[in-house]
Every structure is written in structure tokens, then in C-alpha cells.
Design a protein that fits this description.
Layout lengths: L8 H10 L4 H18 L8 H13 L4 H20 L27 H10 L3 H13 L3 H5 L6 E4 L2 E7 L5 E6 L1 H8 L21 H15 L7 H14 L4 H8 L4 H5 L17
Antiparallel strand pairs: 1-2, 2-3
Length: 280
């Protein structure tokens, strides 16, 4: 049974993307599919198993990280699954392809706290220092960081709060320390609505700009591990858990839909074990 009015690849891809709640997700999936289609050079109906295998091989040869390959392949498989479900395609070729890339351990996604302090000290500008502090202190996604506006801060019972709109337009409220807020206020300029703004002043800093700045800082400091904005979020979570933060509270702060997503941080307690609590 055909459940769609789409008759071309462009139309079905557009329909598929509309099902994605987040604008950021739509953009990422659209980019991934465009790259795939440019590589195979044929219509979706004409894609063969060897095309998918070749796509994976191409990414491996170009040095893509396993996690990146998996993400891009997930987008492609999602599209083929959707096309099959609505009757646009007669088969789902995506089910025939699996990528067994090496799993990234949580420990590889973390930044040591002492390195975070060193990064703050080595950052050139106050803005750059506060980007690092805000990412780590609040556990934000980079897309959330760059879109913070001054009007998002509010006071309640003497406590500083920050309203964040995350994935799927879900809203959550975070507590902000007085020290961090006082430092952020030093960035405030008349008529500028974004805390971290681009040179045009009333447009937010781009995610790419944050990534470039962190990569340059990493190389300057001679750090081996690649530094990404999301690693500060992972580091925030593990530090909070180790300091006694309740799991449900961490879920609320990170904006996870399911507590299962948050539970991964329970599993990382380096050089620790229950034996430390037993003495005979």
C-alpha cells in the first residue's frame, strides 16, 4: 500500500525530514543524505548493496571516525526505512548493511578537570574563557550555548535561573552560580540580545566557530585528545555523578527524555569500586 503522495526523491526526502522534530536534526540529516546521494549518483530506487558498502569504504578511506560513519549511515538507513514503510520503495536495502565500527569508551569522551582549568587559563579572550566555563558548568549542548539570550536568565527566590530550549523544542530550567553569572555580565553590551554573539552583534555565534576555537586551543596546548563542545557535557555529567548528584536530577538538567540515556554516566567510576567501602 502506498501511503505517500511523493513521486520523486526530492519530495520523499522532504517528507521524511518534516518528521524530525528538531531543526538541527533536520539540517544534519539533510547534509548526510545529500553527501550520500552525491556519492552514489543514482536515484534511491536504483541504489544497490554495493553502493552502500562503497559509501562506508569511502568514509573509512577519508579518515572519518567510526562514530561519524555510524551517524551518517544511520541517516541513510532511516531514509530507506521510511521510504519502504510508506510504499515509495518496494524494499529496504538499508537492512542489509551493518557497520561494526569500534565503540568509543566514555573515558575517551571526557576532559580531565585540570585540563579544563588549563584551557580556561590559556584562552585568549574573556568570551572564549566563558564559553568553556559555561559548557562545563551547565552541561549544555553547543547549539544551546550559542542561542542563549540575556532574556533567558531570570531570578526566583534569590536563585539565578536560565531557561534553555533543547532538542525537540523541549524546555528546561538550569541553576546558574552567582560567580558564573557575574562573569557573563561582563560580556553584556547595550542592544545585543545574545550572550555569545557573532561579529554582527545581534546574531548568535555559530557552532562551527566554537569547534574551531576549541581545536586551535587544543593544538596550542599540545593536548592529544580532540576537544569538542560535547565532551564538556559528558565531563559535566560524570563530575556531577561523582560529587553525589542524584540521577533523576542529572536527567532533568541534561534534558534527557529517558533516564536510560543518563544511566551511562553511572558506569564510569575510574579507579573506584565497592571494595573501597569494605574494611575487615
Amino acid at each position: 500500500m502506498i501511503l505517500t503522495k511523493s513521486t520523486t526523491d526530492i519530495e520523499i526526502i522532504s517528507t521524511w525530514l518534516q518528521d524530525k522534530q528538531s531543526k538541527l536534526t533536520q539540517k544534519q540529516y539533510s547534509t548526510n543524505i545529500r553527501q550520500f546521494i552525491n556519492f552514489v549518483g543514482v536515484s534511491l530506487a536504483d541504489v544497490k548493496l554495493e553502493d552502500l558498502q562503497g559509501y562506508i569504504k569511502m568514509m573509512e578511506m577519508k579518515g572519518y571516525r567510526p562514530s561519524t560513519i555510524k551517524t551518517k549511515l544511520t541517516s541513510v538507513k532511516s531514509l530507506f526505512s521510511f521510504c519502504y514503510q510508506v510504499g515509495y520503495l518496494s524494499s529496504n536495502i538499508g537492512t542489509l548493511v551493518k557497520f561494526k565500527g569500534g565503540k568509543t569508551k566514555l573515558s575517551d569522551k571526557l576532559i580531565e578537570q585540570e585540563n579544563i582549568k588549563l584551557m580556561v587559563n590559556n584562552a585568549k579572550t574573556l568570551r572564549d574563557k566563558l564559553i568553556i566555563k559555561t559548557l562545563f558548568s551547565l552541561g549544555l549542548r553547543v547549539s544551546e550555548l550559542v542561542n542563549i539570550q540575556w532574556q533567558d536568565f531570570f531570578f526566583e527566590d534569590g536563585v539565578i535561573n536560565l531557561s534553555i530550549t533543547g532538542k525537540g523544542s523541549k524546555e528546561r530550567t538550569l541553576l546558574v552560580s552567582q560567580n558564573l553569572y557575574s562573569e557573563l555580565l561582563k560580556l553584556k553590551e547595550d542592544g545585543v540580545i545574545y550572550v555569545f554573539h557573532a561579529y554582527s552583534r545581534n546574531t548568535p555565534l555559530t557552532r562551527q566557530s566554537v569547534n574551531i576555537f576549541l581545536t586551535k586551543l587544543q593544538k596550542k596546548m599540545g593536548l592529544e585528545k580532540r576537544i569538542t563542545p560535547h565532551k564538556f557535557r559528558h565531563s559535566h555529567a560524570t563530575t556531577a555523578i561523582k560529587s553525589g548528584c542524584d540521577l533523576s536530577l542529572l536527567q532533568q538538567s541534561l534534558g534527557h527524555s529517558s533516564i536510560r540515556t543518563t544511566e551511562v554516566y553511572l558506569n564510569y567510576r575510574k579507579n573506584e569500586g565497592s571494595t573501597q567501602f569494605i574494611d575487615i
